[in-house]
Amino acid sequence: MGIALPLLAAAVLVVVLFDRRDVFLDALTAAPVWLLLCFVVLQLTALLSRAEAWRLCVGAAGSTVCRRGVFRASGLGGLAGILNGSVGVAARIAALRRSAPDQCPRVGSLVVAEVPIVAVEVALAALTSVTLLGPLGLPWWSAVLCVGGAGGALALLHRMAGRRTTGLWSGLAILRALEGRWLVIGLVLVAVFAQIARNWLALNAIGVDASLFDAIAVLIAMVTLSQLPLGPSVGAAAVVLILGANGVALTAAAGVLLSATGMAGTLAFGGWAIADRMRRPLPSVSGVPA
User: Fold this and answer.
1) pTM of the prediction?
2) Per-residue model confidence (pLDDT) at position 170
3) Which of 90, 170, 172, 232 has its CA 20 to 30 A from that of 241?
4) Which of 149, 182, 178, 176 is nearest to 163 (CA)?
5) Tens digit of pLDDT for each residue in 34-45?
């Protein structure tokens, strides 16, 4: 099933674009090489910022793994996340536990340590959900519900972080300190803004007349669809869903470009993680190789 669905999604994309292949191929070659490199750099910026936010969260939960070790696990998780976002989270946690089992908390705490980052991302998505109203034909009050729901969830999360401090709830420890909360929020904002900038630049480079709000809506759609096992077809599906009225071939080309450059950045980060794992073991707290 994990391989069949990405292949099926790619096959559907090929069928839809077959009669529009000339427009699609011309659009793919519209962006210059230097701009493609900028897309890759922006993807790496987002990945590294989110990895640093994760390091702060697991560190507050009790991890003593060095920054290199956390980044290495994050890079390996990113490789698995190409097929599915949830698989990427599981792979990242498994890689960290396997590399330094005595220096990081239990799996439950590591899973909960993902929650502060996801909460910030969900809150940002809720605040900008108004960008989805037009493309998806949603009623205005759906955005209000999103904001209200996100606000309530954040308030509940903050309360739980203050009341429950042991066991798996130690994963919320970063929320108990004002400085820690703002550092995580700042790093997630850097990652999100990098992705929005990449979307906006790619869409306009291809020839899609996209606004900043369109780029935000595409990002929300991409993150949502990445939870499904669609593989590299996620980018094309998200852009066509939001901006398909501008032409299926043109928007699909923009989506493929975003997926390709995003994958290039992810592969670069993951390639470094694999090379670093093969070359240098992580030191333990006492200095003895783990």
Assistant:
1) 0.86
2) 82
3) 90
4) 176
5) 888 999 999 999
